[in-house]
Design goal:
Blueprint lengths: L30 H6 L18 E3 L54 H4 L2 H7 L1 E5 L12 E6 L2 H12 L4 E4 L13 E12 L10 E16 L3 H5 L4 E8 L4 H6 L3 H5 L6 H15 L4 H19 L9 H4 L13 H39 L13 E3 L5 H33 L4 H29 L32 E3 L3
Parallel strand pairs: 1-3, 8-9
Antiparallel strand pairs: 2-7, 3-6, 4-5, 5-6, 6-7
Helix pairs in contact: 9-13, 11-12, 12-13
């Protein structure tokens, strides 16, 4: 009976930001689910088996208020004296627009490395809708589903359908300043929209599928008062960077494709072209160094039998090429790295909860006893905090404190790393950043291996079945065994 249960632990709302850093979760969101929610549909050829495509429920809440109640944590990725650390300035390591509450939120001043020519930015900029989605960082050429129910965003979708643009900007929210957004966001292009108001009693208006077709450099918010009034959506002035060639493809039909046999699917032809291009591209010294660093990291993960690790096959398909007309490319590897960071956080989170989960299940079994037929009763799917024993209540509070202290910095670090890559000026800068982050993880594991060899009292453990598969064909990916978790604990604050 226990194996059939799919139960989860829900921590109280005051500390639920542990696993969803800048996004305020709904009252029914489990801790385990909240940190996975950041990984909406990834590129299908580069998914973790634990990160399936999922819908992102777009809330009308102010997503960064929870974290704003306290100071942001100290990042732990590397030593404080590392001068090359791209996140050495913490949250200020990435670029932010002024807050919408600023009395004069004029055009932001970009860092010299990002601004290029200010006048050129103004000349090529255009007005775009802004849809802030909390602390999530999206990357070019990924696909995502949004459920739309809030009135102002229903209006936004009606507008982009009516004017034919079918696109808007998504930018990350500042973790502790209300109404402040990252200077570099991404462009969501609407690919499919379903009207579902009748099926949902008008709770949800649209279910929409999108493709991220590029990045956007934001200059300013045009109607900052709308953030407070909430009577309409925000609009921004920004410059689009077409990272995927999406708009070039639309504006310039490919003559070769028109001459091809119509029986050959265009998508298949496109994939074959990308694969052939990837084999033909010569790697730069910096790209080769990144590939080698990743290969070394994978070997270390397997030596240490890390719970979350890449498959060895992922080394061969780790992309470092520029653009998206080649597959795999650097952007696919960036999404792969993002998924790895998310899964590592989930693994650590489950590890921290395990002892409490076992005690909670034991408590429930004892309280419920056997049924009239002498068989073990099925455990409830939810339990109130007040129904726990005083000992379990105290343990839950302490668990929340530990998770806040350890997991919040990890998720903040992961998010800022992705944002830093997103706002990089060019491909070479992205390669350099990726290499730094891969090297930082490799150094961490190397130190762990050294300590294990010194104090472990023997050789490293035999390698077990990989928990995570990545950058390999979906049909070859091993399946994850879902952990059995205890019921939801509703903790009122």
């Amino acid at each position: 009976m226990m194996a059939a249960l799919h139960l989860s632990l829900l921590l109280c709302a005051a500390s639920s930001s542990i696993a969803s850093a800048f996004v305020e979760p709904s009252s029914t969101l489990s801790v385990a689910a909240s940190s996975v929610a950041a990984s909406s549909a990834r590129n299908s050829a580069h998914q973790f088996t634990a990160s399936p495509s999922c819908s992102w429920r777009v809330e009308s809440q102010r997503r960064n208020q929870i974290v704003g109640r306290s100071n942001c944590p100290q990042l732990r990725m590397v030593d404080d004296d590392d001068e090359n650390n791209p996140l050495s300035r913490g949250i200020n390591s990435v670029s932010w627009l002024p807050s919408v509450y600023d009395p004069s939120p004029s055009r932001s001043v970009f860092d010299s490395s990002m601004s290029g020519g200010g006048e050129d930015d103004e000349e090529t900029s255009e007005t775009l809708p802004l849809f802030p989605l909390g602390g999530i960082v999206y990357t070019p050429n990924s696909e995502h589903i949004l459920n739309i129910f809030e009135p102002r965003y229903r209006q936004m979708y009606n507008d982009i359908l009516m004017n034919g643009s079918k696109r808007f900007v998504v930018s990350m929210c500042h973790p502790n300043e209300e109404g402040r957004f990252a200077q570099v966001g991404v462009l969501f292009s609407l690919e499919e929209l379903k009207e579902v108001s009748e099926m949902t009693a008008d709770r949800v208006k649209y279910i929409c599928n999108h493709r991220v077709t590029g990045r956007v450099k934001l200059q300013k918010v045009l109607n900052p008062e709308a953030w407070e009034s909430r009577d309409t959506y925000l609009k921004v002035k920004g410059t689009i960077i077409d990272d995927t060639g999406y708009y070039d493809e639309k504006d310039n039909d490919n003559d070769d494709d028109e001459k091809m046999d119509e029986s050959i699917p265009k998508q298949m032809v496109a994939e074959l072209k990308k694969a052939a291009a990837a084999d033909a591209v010569e790697k730069s010294p910096e790209e080769l160094a990144l590939s080698q660093s990743f290969s070394d990291l994978v070997e270390l993960q397997h030596d240490l039998t890390e719970d979350v690790r890449f498959t060895r096959a992922s080394v061969k398909s780790f992309g470092v090429a520029d653009g998206t007309d080649i597959d795999p490319n650097l952007w696919t590897s960036i999404r792969l790295w993002q998924s790895y960071a998310e899964q590592r956080l989930v693994a650590r989170q489950n590890e921290m909860q395990k002892e409490f989960q076992e005690k909670l299940v034991e408590f429930l079994k004892k309280e419920m006893g056997d049924g009239d037929d002498g068989k073990e009763q099925e455990l409830p799917s939810a339990i109130g905090f007040q129904d726990l024993s005083p000992e379990l209540q105290n343990e839950l509070v302490e668990l929340q404190k530990r998770m806040t202290s350890e997991l919040e910095p990890l998720l903040l670090e992961q998010t800022l790393s992705m944002q830093k890559i997103l706002e990089a000026n060019d491909h070479d800068d992205r390669v350099e950043l990726m290499r730094y982050f891969v090297d930082a993880e490799r150094k961490r594991l190397q130190a762990k291996k050294t300590l294990k060899s010194m104090f472990g009292g023997g050789p490293l453990a035999e390698e077990s079945e990989p928990v995570v598969a990545a950058a390999v064909p979906k049909e070859e990916q091993p399946k994850l065994r879902a952990p059995t978790l205890p019921p939801k604990v509703h903790h009122q604050t």
